[in-house]
Amino acid sequence: MKDKNVISRRSAITGMGAIIATAAMPSAIAGELRNDLYAGPDPQEDPTTKYPRPPFKNQRQPWPGLASKMEPQPDHGEKSYKGSGRLKGRKALITGGDSGMGRAAAIAYAREGADVAINYYPTEEEDAREVIRLIKAEGRKAIAIPGDLRDEAFCTKLVEEAVKGLGGLDIVVNNAARQQTQKSILDITTEDFDATMKTNIYAPFWIIKAALPHLKPGASIIGTSSEQAYDPSGDLYDYAQTKAATTNYIKSLAKQLGPKGIRVNGVAPGPIWTPLQVSGGATPEKLQSFGGQTPLGRPGQPVELASIYVQLAANDASYSNGQIYGASGGSGNP
Ligand code: NAD
Ligand code: MG
Prior knowledge:
- Keywords: Oxidoreductase.
- This protein is an alpha/beta fold.
- Helices cover 40% and strands 11% of the residues.
- The chain has two domains: 1-44, no CATH class; 55-327, Rossmann fold, CATH 3.40.50.
- The protein is globular, with a radius of gyration of 20 Å.
- 44% of the residues are buried.
- Residues 1-31 have low confidence and may be disordered.
- Nicotinamide-adenine-dinucleotide binds at residues 64-65, 96, 98-102, 120-121, 124, 148-150, 175-179, 199, 224, 226, 269, 271-272, 274-277, 302.
């Protein structure tokens, strides 16, 4: 009964169902609900001015870059993301969990009640430490597993360590990626091409294979794709095709694992202000006007995608399988 009230309250607060739900409730609960609904203003935020707009300062970091050294600093929801128990008791592994979308998802998952393991490249320890601190601040388990995803043995070990540290696994977010801009296909070496394929395509393959024996009905696999899957840029020849592959594996696996009760979905960001872009992902010229071409006139911030990662893992998205959810500021697909 208690659980039922919690669910009724949440759906009532978030939607038009509020009035109908209130009418059907005992007056004490309805009163509390009204207090929630009208307790202080939740002002509308103008999405065009909510976050920094270009032009941005010229900046370049060695790969893979640190969020802590970006100007302006990205917003991963450190101060703003509020949870409501949507992932209580869940156990999540997030690759690239130190910065960008991965960090935003890690913070949000912890605030929704999940224990979280993050993987990152060893040189990202500084960013990772901050994420670990934020997860622990929520009273959740936080496991840091640095290592190179281009290595199959490491990917297998990563899953084993996450399972051991968390005491199980039910959310896997394959989010890490390599993106290096190159004007010409002639400038992409076989080593470059291989590194992009290994990070973006092989690693999720290895990780999902290792994770699958641990996943039970209700588990969720999420991949980070991109608008590049649909409309590739000329200077992202190798990266863009890995994102098309990501969207494709999500749709294939959703069919394969759906009957087992495991959902597989993806997120397709547009231009988002993350270290990936300042450490070789974009040219300096592109970076200065980054996001300016979108209808909102600015890049997205990682936190603006956090609720999508939550939604795709949560029980209430139980009919979302094989879907790609976009957040691209008004242009691009899906
Ligand atoms: P980010 O730099 O914050 O995250 C990428 C992470 O990948 C790094 O933090 C790093 O930990 C990890 N990584 C890369 N190579 C690795 C390796 N060999 N071993 C271990 N870890 C490795 O940038 P982000 O933009 O948040 O990227 C997250 C996801 O979002 C990626 O899949 C990216 O393709 C996707 N994406 C980003 C944008 C954007 O504009 N930023 C747009 C569309 C899609
Ligand atoms: Mg990083």
